[in-house]
Amino acid sequence: MSINVITWVMSHADVQNHGELAVLYALAERAHEDGRYAWPSQSWIAYRARCTTRTVRNHLTNLEGRGMIRRGDQNVVSHLDPRYRPIVWDIDMTKVRSDSEPAKLSALAKSRAESFSSRPENPDTQGGKSEHPDRKPVSYKPSIEPSSEPSENLTPSSPPPGDRFEEFWGLVPRKVGIGKARTAYRSAVKRAGDEQTVIDGMRRFAADPNLPAEKQYIPHPTTWLNRDGWEDEPLPPRPGAVPAATHTFGTRPEDWLQGLAAPEPGNVVEGEVVSWPEIEH
Q1: Which stretches within 3-128 are classed as H helix?
Q2: 267-269 and 272-274 strand pairing
Q3: Which residues, 6 or more positions from 75, have their beta carbon under 8 angstroms from its beta carbon?
Q4: Which of 13, 138, 144, 197 has the most crowded Cβ, counting Cβ within 10 A?
Q5: Distance between CA atoms of 279 and 281, rounded to whole angstroms?
């Protein structure tokens, strides 16, 4: 996180609406001190900006078109899987807003600051001492503590929660309604408890040998997610399908004869089928 870039966005960024401001704030949170090398995913930005990923893409396009942001060194994320590789953005901190701060607001803020600093109970504001010697001086520097949320700058082996939809979508045998499926996926992950359960369930479903050959009979991914399809049993055999062998042959005579026609004439000695004349008495 760069306080310097976030402060610049707050005071000087030349944005056209609150949506662009929120997206720019999200980029600033992941940028270096000079505004470069911000590479959060679009879904992470959407979560921060309280909007959809499509809206994020529109704002990024507009910001890039006006030169507020530009594509940076993409080699920074070359170690990531191309399927999940985000775009590296650089924020151009030379682009500043043309309007000036209202004079009335500035005067009011200055008046309040002077009033606050002149309070006798305020310790150490002007180099003086507090009237309360037993009270510890208060620091007005902002406290920056580590965030409890997972970092977006992760390797592909541990993507943030909710960020593996593309992996899930790659397994779907009938790819229709990606927008609704994305929303249903997030809800399904909450019900299942983790993303791996949902993804493994779709992998089993897609690999089921009894999956209908005609795609129109395969349920939509949204339908599969809403019905908790990862908990479904394997599909029943299709009509006309050849059942798999169910017998396991061993060394016992009954294992060898199970499901097979008995030799005529014949017998079994030590697990081998022989004809009657070959049996020693």
Answers
A1: 3-12, 18-30, 42-49, 53-65, 103-117
A2: antiparallel
A3: none
A4: 13
A5: 6
